[in-house]
Specification:
heterodimer; A: Rossmann fold; two-stranded antiparallel ribbon; 7 helices; 11 strands; disordered N terminus; B: FAD/NAD(P)-binding domain; Alpha-Beta Plaits; seven-stranded mixed β-sheet; 20% strand; globular; Rossmann-like_a/b/a_fold (chain A); ETF_beta_N (chain A); ETF_a/b_N (chain A); electron transport (chain A)
Chain lengths: 283, 659
């Protein structure tokens, strides 16, 4: 019996359209948030997540000699985003660097972006829908790779919440990811304060990326043009049965207090006197 | 032979076709002869996603709808999105917009929300202001105060979503794609190679011209018509003008630099729709320029200073002039309790009618400010730029034939003809004598006197057309006229600018941070220290892509025999000569003039020379190209005329949203 081409992994990469990292942000006049009338682009940690999923695919292609060159891609990558119509640009960027298809959960132009819990619930709902459609093993989502945090709200909790809701293993702050598809396991090196920590997780798994995982590639112009033809599924939060009503109320957003200048001292005695003034005494 | 990495794959896989496309290129020098470019064919390729380029794109698609022949239009924009590199006052005359999109008032999200309600001119002394009469052309009835950056963003949205124009932000037009052999005649009857398209920038080169693992060659767009809409002093426009001698029968272009800030002012000072123009202090009477204050929508005020680049004193710092202008009591009052939310700068054209070059060349044309259509009496150019876009689109649509490969280059002379029969030409003709009238020894007084008479009574209906003033030693055709007016530093004294008073006025780096400018690290320096004619020769004839990018880059190219060894020495000599003249005779003008702090002439540490050997008397040139805000002042004003501005990797540069 001819062995069927092995399906290795089905990876979901949620990406967020966030304020561009090089923009100088300001608090909006109403003090309810940051002025969003500025350049947006894909969250840098999400770029790293997309890049990692593509590298997993490249690695698996170069090390599986038994699959004939004409068989379908054993690793499928789906990019997903939640946002207003403009968020489609970010999805197209993910498609241009190598994702196979996209999912756009559309919210209105003026609506507030969902909170992390809402995001996690949407991703869970989509995964469950996808797994239902797939039935058996083929088409089930095995792996979700997210950025560790978004640079505009710095929450850093979506990946963890998602893993909790799904009951999957999680490996956060990844700086190295190795996939062993034969065993159905993933070995991840996590960045922690003390250095690196290795964990081995059984699939399915949620991974969040840290900065040192990889350096994302550029989307070349020919690929951007090809990406326009890749399929994008459009959904609304209602289709997934998720409600984005905010659970948190933002009371006030202000800039950090302006840094007050220091002073120069002329002698050691003066320094000691100033330290004493500040209430710092010898132990 | 090129060194290759040792094989990492097991032996049995060496014979399998590798699916990955990245060859073992790590750190090899860039070899222009061996790159394969992806190619695509379009009907019209437009370089520049500003008002002119986008109007041309929209008009082409409108013609497609009216007449039925499909036409593929691609717009290349070097900014990260349309509008991110655009900066202007701006008060715009909706005349062209009414022709292009008559229904614009009903379109949602259009940015013309603040009509101009008044128009005033003020004369400033150090402490006071006096109202002045202004030329009737400056009256603003029916005009709107907008952020041109937002305007371009909106137009791009309309072009893409309503008309199906393909817009690719983040990709710069880096080179003109020319025909293999001369196959066309220019306007003067010479045999020349025609323009067959545009090549985008290479991506993934290090500073020393070696290829990173992310290297991708630029893509080539083969187009029947190439429209250059790069704004004032565009990089490809400059090359086209030189290659096709487009200025043979016109005056050289003259320029000014505009520095701008956007403030949110205290509501008590906010007067929506107010338009004020200022002359006098802080500029001296032999320097042409002036300030402006426009009250935009939503409590925002646009203010700034325009200084003509033919200023003589190399110690003048446009940035410091703007900052000290804000110390005037008029501005202190306006900006008290305000918050500065934007800063930027960009050159603009001032040459007007006399400086319009031949607008078409075999295979393409110049649009908007790349041609130079600012009306300096009205201080407006957007309406003219948009109209040139529309005229070019109409001519292109007519001229394009269906066959490709062997067809002759598209003849865009219909556009040049249409321009001279349009209201753009009349608009510029009326005010053609005003700017030159400021170039006499009477300085601004002579200018104001003549301009008063001309704008009020004569309205340009005179038989004479003044030429732009010339210095005692005329520049050659490829150099900028403005740079040749700069006098040596020993004829002037340094200007004593007042210290900064934050938050009203700040140091340069604080302002540059507000532009959001950034360029990916470790890429070739895009500001090439080489005269433009040598740059073009280098690229076209000797395939020397690294010319002007520094001694190390040339060394890398010489390593793989992409260039001859003596090019390295030539590069070193160019650098030394640049530092010698600029520091020795002009007190390091660029260090003072650049509105983003890109250029520095600093002492070499230790003894004598740099590792590259390109210092002069202990001084070397440092180019902080990451700060560049793409204003083009350096290319225009450097006294040695040896800075050629080229495009960096796409998406770099400022991220203007409100300017």
């Amino acid at each position: 019996m001819r062995p069927s081409p092995r399906r290795l992994l089905n990876i979901l990469v949620p990406v967020k359209r966030a304020v561009d990292y090089s923009v100088k942000i300001r608090v909006n006049p109403a003090q309810t948030g940051v002025d969003t009338n500025v350049k947006h682009s894909m969250n840098p940690f999400d770029e790293i997540a997309v890049e990692e999923s593509i590298r997993i695919r490249e690695r698996s292609l170069s090390s599986s000699p038994s699959s004939p060159p004409s068989s379908p891609n054993p690793v499928t990558i789906t990019a997903l985003t939640i946002g207003p119509p403009k968020a489609l640009d970010v999805l197209r960027t993910a498609l241009a660097v190598g994702a196979d298809s996209g999912v756009h959960i559309a919210i209105g132009e003026k609506e507030a972006m969902p909170e992390p819990l809402g995001v996690a619930k949407s991703i869970k709902a989509w995964i469950e829908k996808q797994n239902e459609k797939a039935g058996g093993k083929e088409g089930r989502v095995d792996c979700v790779i997210l950025g560790k945090q978004a640079i505009d709200d710095d929450s850093g909790v979506t990946g963890q919440m998602l893993a909790g809701l799904l009951g999957w293993s999680q490996a956060t702050f990844a700086s190295k990811v190795e996939v062993d598809e034969a065993r159905g396991e993933v070995t991840v090196t996590r960045e922690i304060d003390g250095g690196g920590m290795q964990v081995r997780c059984r699939l399915p798994v949620v991974i969040t990326t840290d900065l040192r995982l990889n350096e994302p590639r550029y989307a070349s112009l020919p690929n951007i043009m090809k990406a326009k033809k890749k399929p994008v599924e459009k959904l609304t939060p209602a289709d997934l049965g998720v409600d984005f009503t905010p659970q948190l109320e933002v009371l006030k957003v202000t800039e950090p207090p302006k840094r007050v200048g220091g002073g120069k001292v002329e002698s050691v005695e003066e320094l000691v006197a100033k330290l004493k003034e500040a209430g710092i005494t010898a132990a | 032979m090129r060194r290759s990495k040792p094989a990492l794959l097991p032996a049995r896989l060496l014979f399998k076709r590798s699916i990955r496309t990245s060859a073992p290129r790590w750190n090899q020098p860039f070899d222009p002869k061996s790159i394969e470019r992806a190619e695509d064919e379009v009907d019209v390729c437009i370089v520049g996603g500003g008002p002119a380029g986008l109007s041309a794109a929209i008009r082409l698609k409108q013609l497609e709808r009216e007449k039925g022949n499909e036409i593929r239009v691609v717009v290349l924009e070097k900014g990260s999105e349309a509008g991110s590199h655009i900066l202007s006052g701006a008060v715009i005359e909706p005349r062209a917009l009414d022709e292009l999109l008559p229904e614009w008032r009903t379109m949602e999200e259009h940015p013309l929300r603040q009509p101009a309600t008044s128009s005033k001119m003020l004369f400033m002394t150090e402490k006071m202001t006096f109202p002045m009469p202004h030329p009737p052309q400056m009256s603003n009835k029916g005009n709107y105060i907008v952020s041109l950056s937002q305007y371009a963003r909106w137009l791009a949205n309309v072009a893409e979503n309503e008309y199906g124009v393909e817009i690719y932000p983040g990709f710069a037009g880096a080179q003109l794609l020319l025909s293999e052999a001369p196959d066309a005649k220019d306007a003067w009857g010479n045999d020349v190679r025609s323009v067959r398209g545009v090549i985008t920038n290479e991506v993934g080169l290090t500073k020393d011209f070696r290829m990173k693992s992310s290297f991708e060659p630029g893509m080539a767009f083969r187009s029947k018509v190439t429209l250059l809409a790069e704004g004032a002093h565009g990089s490809l426009s400059k090359q086209a003008i030189q290659m096709y001698d487009l200025r043979k029968e016109s005056e050289p272009q003259t320029y000014a630099i505009g520095l701008k800030e956007v403030w949110r002012v205290d509501p008590s000072e906010y007067k929506p729709g107010l338009v004020q123009h200022l002359v006098g202090w802080p500029l001296s009477s032999d320097t042409y320029g002036g300030g402006w204050v426009y009250h935009m929508n939503d409590g925002l005020v646009s203010l700034g200073l325009v200084i003509a680049l033919d200023y003589k004193n190399p110690y003048l710092s446009p940035y410091r002039e703007l900052q000290r202008m804000k110390h005037h009591p008029f501005f202190r009052r306006l900006l008290k309790d305000g918050e500065r939310i934007g800063y930027g700068a960009r050159s603009l054209t001032e040459g007007g009618f006399q400086s319009i070059p031949k607008l078409n060349f075999p295979g393409g044309a110049l649009l908007g400010c790349s041609a130079g259509v600012v009306n300096i009496a009205k201080i407006k150019g957007t309406h003219n730029a948009m109209k040139t876009g529309m005229l070019a689109a109409e001519a292109a649509y007519e001229a394009i034939h269906e066959e490709s490969e062997d067809a002759p280059a598209t003849d865009m002379s219909g556009y040049d003809k249409a321009f001279h029969e349009s209201w753009v030409r009349d608009d510029l003709y009326e005010v053609r004598n005003l700017r030159p009238s400021f170039g006499t020894k009477l300085g601004i007084w002579g200018g104001m006197a003549y301009s008063g008479v001309d704008t009020l009574f004569l309205k340009g209906r005179v038989p004479w057309t003044f030429k732009h003033h010339r210095p005692s030693h005329g520049p050659d055709k490829t150099s900028s006229l403005d740079s040749s007016f700069t006098e040596k530093a020993d004829l002037h004294t340094p200007i004593n600018y007042p210290p900064f008073e934050a938050p009203l006025s700040t140091d340069l780096m604080t302002s540059v941070a507000l532009t959001g400018t950034n360029h990916a690290e470790d890429q070739p320096v895009h500001l090439r220290v080489v005269k433009t004619k040598d740059f073009v020769k280098g690229i076209e004839e000797s395939q020397n892509f690294a010319v002007g990018a520094g001694v190390n880059a040339l060394k890398a190219e010489a390593e793989i025999d992409a260039v001859a060894e003596d090019e390295v020495e030539a590069e070193r000599k160019r650098r030394i000569e640049h530092v010698k003249v600029n520091v020795g005779e002009y007190a390091g003008l660029l260090q003072r003039a650049c509105p983003a702090g890109v250029y520095e002439y600093i002492d070499v540490e230790g003894s004598g020379n740099t590792p590259e050997g390109d210092a002069w008397q202990g001084k070397k040139l440092v180019i902080n190209s990451q700060n560049c805000i793409h204003c083009k002042l350096c290319d225009i004003k450097v006294p040695t005329q040896d800075i050629t501005w080229t495009v960096p990797e796409g998406s770099g540069g400022p991220k203007y949203t409100l300017t």
